[in-house]
């Protein structure tokens, strides 16, 4: 727990009733310096009081726009919204920081914040993946723009996880068609997974799907090709082990 100056401690201890009696919560900020407002917001955030932290930061940004540490306040506001689960608002605030303070040393953090916010908005695999696609693009930009930094490494990890989500969605679509004996359609989606998301765990399973679907159609040459690709690309996968039981590998 940080040491809290007596003045700020007193303001933090004001009850809602007392604030109402003196004409509303904003009145307690009237004679506070921007430094005091920022410190109060930081303490509120650290103690988990997101609403009050946002209120204080809004006041700071509104009344002290020329304060040298305004970029820090803007970034803190984005982080408070993110921590409270308001990911769309957080994304907007991170982007606003990037638009207004492009040369600031904290731009990698803000760019990663956009990536993380969009990733949190990414739905589970069976839903529309618009936010997932947008998040991947945003995270890739972080990887490119800030190569070598920790933020780029984290963004790469997020992007990889989101690509796995997209691969899973395509795989589920392929399986949907396979279970209904619509093998040509199933093959199209299995091949998409194998070609577009080859680094994910779904790729070997997709090649197994291509193999099985072609078998069911009676295209033995295409089934053999899918089997060979699976054994060559993913020899240690469970899918490879499964197809080895279907024939001899010499």
In words, what does this structure look like?
It is built from 13 helices and no strands. It is 72% helix and 0% strand. The radius of gyration is 26 Å and the shape is elongated. Among the domains are: 1-87, Serine Threonine Protein Phosphatase 5, Tetratricopeptide repeat, CATH 1.25.40; 181-250, no CATH class.
Question: Which quaternary structure do these chains form?
Answer: single chain
CATH architecture of the domain at 1-87: Alpha Horseshoe
Number of strands: 0
Q: What count of helical segments does DSSP give? A: 13
Derived structural class: mainly alpha
Summarize the structure.
It is built from 13 helices and no strands. By secondary structure, the chain is mostly helical.
Layout of strands and helices, then pairs:
Layout: H1 6-12, H2 16-21, H3 34-46, H4 50-63, H5 70-83, H6 87-100, H7 107-121, H8 130-145, H9 150-179, H10 183-196, H11 202-217, H12 220-233, H13 238-244
Helix pairs in contact: 3-4, 4-5, 5-6, 6-7, 7-8, 7-9, 8-9, 9-10, 9-11, 10-11, 11-12, 11-13
Observed structural traits:
250 residues, mainly alpha, Serine Threonine Protein Phosphatase 5, Tetratricopeptide repeat, 72% helix, elongated
